[in-house]
Specification:
Elements (H helix, E strand, L loop, with lengths): L10 E7 L5 H12 L4 E4 L7 E8 L6 H4 L3 E10 L1 E3 L8 E4 L7 H8 L4 E5 L8 E2 L2 E2 H6 L9 E14 L2 E9 L4 H11 L4 E11 L2 E2 L6 H9 L3 H4 L1 E2 L9 E3 L2 H8 L4 E2 L9 E4 L5 E7 L4 E7 L5
Parallel strand pairs: 3-12, 15-17
Antiparallel strand pairs: 1-3, 1-14, 2-3, 4-11, 4-12, 5-6, 7-10, 8-9, 10-11, 12-13, 16-19, 17-18, 18-19
């Protein structure tokens, strides 16, 4: 009997992360279900947050870095009138302020300043490192954590429902945005304080939460022998990235590390090279005018 392959699955799972689990917890659960170690996630969600967590298996883990950037969509609730040290419901309350004077129009007017290119200071309780130490570890020890502001882009920030003193919102933003900081800063702009009460990632690129798979459903698929039917094929993982179809001769050239002369519209930072069958062959990056070199080349994985 031939030995069982170490990484039998190569592809992506759009997991609907439940509240109370870290992103790493989800990865460990998927590892156990798939029976393989080579599993990773793209774009961390806080333990209290729910929604899309893209989990890659096998060869697809080499594509994680291309799934992290891009546009994310979130829906959640902000509680005004109270602030916490973590900027969300997991932290300790630091202030409480009267909010009876607030109305929907005031809140919407304040939200306008949070769209476009803005400067954002990440929460002290975050994984950003200071001198090699995650800032949340420093904050837990009571040390001052002054993280530098970062340039981010908010495509839209809309109020869906106003239920004083809480607002339900939808935000479309660039990867790297801390929605917790948006909640905190909105409260500060209104001079009453605020924190993120709940959050769900509803979109990541073209991936949607409506199509996401619960962990229980994944485990049921494993019991029924249907895992192949719920894992998106390796070649479908980078559907949002521009691609080009190449010949078998060009595939061989990439296999030898040689670049290709290709005319590509626009100026993408990377493109996917695919065989005529649709199989993902390589990730290419610019190497001069109308020339592209392989950054990653993939064997036949599906």
């Amino acid at each position: 009997m031939s030995p069982k392959p170490t990484n039998p699955y190569n592809g992506l799972l759009n997991i609907n992360k439940p509240a109370g689990m870290t992103s790493h917890d989800v990865v460990n659960r998927v590892r156990r279900v798939l029976g393989q170690k080579r599993v990773g996630h793209a774009g961390t969600l806080d333990p209290a947050a729910t929604g899309i967590l893209l989990v890659c298996a096998g060869q697809a883990t080499r594509l994680v870095e291309y799934l992290v950037p891009g546009i994310k969509t979130y829906q959640g609730t902000i509680r005004l009138g109270q602030a916490t040290d973590t900027y969300d419901s997991e932290g300790e309350f630091t202030s409480e302020t009267e909010t009876s004077h607030l109305n929907r129009e005031m809140v919407e007017a304040a939200m306008v300043s949070f769209t476009g290119d803005i400067e954002q200071v990440p929460p002290a309780y975050s994984a950003i490192k200071r001198d090699g130490v995650p800032s949340y570890k420093l904050a837990r020890k009571g040390k001052d954590v002054n993280l530098p502001a970062r340039r981010i882009r908010i495509e839209s920030f809309e109020l869906i429902e106003w239920n004083h003193p809480e607002l339900t919102f939808r935000i479309v933003c660039q990867s790297g945005t801390y929605v917790r900081s948006i909640a905190h800063d909105l409260g500060a702009a209104l001079e009453v304080g605020g924190y993120l009460k709940s959050l769900c990632r509803t979109g990541s690129g073209s991936w949607r939460v409506e199509d996401a798979l619960d962990l229980a459903a994944l485990e049921q698929a494993a019991e029924d022998g249907r895992l192949e039917s719920v894992i998106r094929p390796f070649s479908d993982v980078l559907a949002d990235i521009p691609g080009v179809t190449i010949t078998e001769k060009e595939i061989a050239q990439l296999g030898y590390g040689q670049g290709l002369p290709l005319e590509i519209e626009g100026r993408p930072e990377i493109i996917c090279a695919r065989a005529e069958t649709g199989r993902l062959v390589a990730i290419l990056v610019p190497d001069g005018t109308n020339r592209w070199r392989p950054k990653k080349v993939f064997p036949e994985t599906g």
